[in-house]
């Protein structure tokens, strides 16, 4: 078997060559050749979440692998762009390099570093606003990505609006709005169409995201943690029922509620130690 020069490469050069050959029209992989930006985008999002999951679990060996998967997604998109004559790998690297340099004049320029992280965040937003203006994105919300998870996008939209003064000044006002939205949904649920119920539910979720922002809580992270907690406790219910030779569908709600409370108490006792 002839020696493949791919084995003589390393690092970025090796990965670039792997990606190029996977997309080669004559000798590449049929699946890779058929892909487009739209078909690969869901995989890119999925890989980003897997990176986040590994970090959340402090699974550092897995994180190395997941970061590689995410990096490969960037190479895949860049190769497709190069194949289409849109831009090159070097263009991608140069663009992010220039962006980071321009957004950090206190590191790469003559601006003073003697300021707080909060002030640097304000300065960052000033630079980004200038970048949006250069792209003729005049609207305050213009570049908030549509593909973000809905809860995350809600917070970003609210933060952007708050920067120009469109925000409740007090948390109590947000709580009042939540009560109003809850009341409207409960009172009208029997008279509304399903589409209208969905709209009202969306309004309530949007205000809940606003409350999280006012409390300094990242709602996406909070909900992830609660999902994990629910999963953990429900599995405790399943394990306790299995020890009795039963399954959840063979049990009553009262039985499962008792087991849920037991799992909750056990968690609190373990945390307190």
From TrEMBL:
Keyword Nucleotide-binding part of the UniProt annotation: no
MF annotations from Gene Ontology: ATP diphosphatase activity
Originating species: Donghicola eburneus
Domain of life: Bacteria
Entry keywords, A to Z: Hydrolase
Family recorded in the similarity comment: Belongs to the nucleoside triphosphate pyrophosphohydrolase family.
Entry annotated with the keyword Ubl conjugation: no
One Pfam family linked to the record: MazG
Protein name: Nucleoside triphosphate pyrophosphohydrolase
